[in-house]
Prior knowledge:
The chain is of the alpha/beta class. The chain has one domain (2-203): P-loop containing nucleotide triphosphate hydrolases (Rossmann fold). Helices cover 56% and strands 12% of the residues. It is built from 9 helices and 5 strands, in the order E-H-E-H-H-E-H-H-E-H-H-H-E-H. The protein has helices at 13-26, 44-54, 62-86, 97-107, 112-122, 140-149, 152-155, 164-180, 192-203; strands at 2-7, 31-35, 90-94, 132-137, 185-187. A 5-stranded parallel beta sheet has the order 2-3-1-4-5, with helices on both faces. Helix 1 packs across helix 9, helix 2 runs antiparallel to helix 3 (62-86) and helix 4 (97-107) packs across helix 8. It starts with a strand and ends with a helix. 32% of the residues are buried.
Amino acid sequence: MYIVIEGQDGTGKDTQAKLLADFFRKQGKTVVHYAESGTASENPFIADIARLNYGSEQNIEEHTRSLLYVINRYEQWKKLAEPTLKSGGVVITTRNWFSTLIYQGYGLKVSRKFIIKLHKLMMPEPYFHPDKIVIFTISDEESARRLIAQGKDRQAEVFKSKGKNFQKTLKQAYLTVAKDYQVPTLSADPDIETVQKNLRQLFQI
């Protein structure tokens, strides 16, 4: 089973993915969970690219940044996701190619046609067809509260440092993508336990 959890910053994607992974492991299933950004990767190559992408002082052209995201996306799919799925395990990723479409495309005006073509060229067809997918939504007030709570180091990351207007653009873009690609949404505003309960109900697991 291939599961994708998407949503803008501060929606608790990683927290919910970890809880979902624990749920499947208790059922005796083999589970691989990772963030497509690569920020928590134990692979030095993937982690180095993630540092380039997210370091606020890295002056990277946005088309180049899009390419770097695809490199991490492809590496992790081939080394982690694909083998696990072939052996009948569960793969849970936080973010997928929608993040690049939204952040670089809608947010930073990189050609959305370029982003779509790039992913179609690089990523295998099964990547685009998760068994379960959700986009987390969040209120402006709750989003601001959580971003502040993450601390100054996280706030300084390249996208989180762009301010409220950029976050509002991302929020609207996620709603647009959810509609265009018929992806269900789920509010991340409630407490962690409630969101997890609602997520399992949505996924019917």
